[in-house]
Amino acid sequence: MTMRFIRTCVGCHGKDLDKLNEMIARERPISRRTFRESVDRAELREIEIGFGYEAHPSRGLTMAGDWHVSYHRSVWGDKPCVYFRWSAIEHIFVAD
């Protein structure tokens, strides 16, 4: 099951704030590897490029090498989700 990016916590309003709070309360840490196996890799790569990460450590900082990024599994409403936290912002990927 590939999960797709839906929004960041910054884009949450109304009922989505309840989902966000529940998601964070129920989070479980996961590895980057598990996260990558769960999401659309092309979408993730686009996000990484947008943040200025390099594709390979020989060229500079990669998202994989950034110890400030953490990865999590939880629920978004009634759907499984995974997300990464970058600069205290959750980037949420949900199963279709």
Written overview of the protein:
The protein is globular. The model has no long low-confidence stretch (mean pLDDT 96). The longest helix has 11 residues. β4 and β5 form a beta hairpin. Strands 1-5-4-3-2 form a five-stranded antiparallel beta sheet, with helices on both faces. With 96 residues, it is α+β, with helices and mostly antiparallel strands. Helices cover 30% and strands 31% of the residues. It has one domain. The protein contains three helices and five strands, in the order βαβααβββ.
Indicate the radius of gyration in whole angstroms. 13 Å
Return the average pLDDT rounded to an integer: 96
Q: Biggest β-sheet: count, sense, barrel?
A: 5 strands, antiparallel
For the termini, the CA-CA separation is 8 Å
Work out the oligomeric state of the chains in this entry. Answer: single chain
User: Secondary-structure element sequence?
Assistant: EHEHHEEE
Number of helical regions: 3
Question: What does the overall shape look like?
Answer: globular
Task: Please give the share of residues in helix.
Answer: 25-40%
What is the total tally of β strands? Answer: 5
In short:
This protein is α+β, with helices and mostly antiparallel strands and 96 residues long. Helix content is 30%, strand content 31%.
What's the layout of helices and strands?
Layout: E1 3-8, H1 15-25, E2 28-29, H2 32-38, H3 41-51, E3 70-76, E4 79-86, E5 89-95
Antiparallel strand pairs: 1-5, 2-3, 3-4, 4-5
Any descriptors?
96 residues; alpha+beta; 5-stranded antiparallel beta sheet; 3 helices; 31% strand
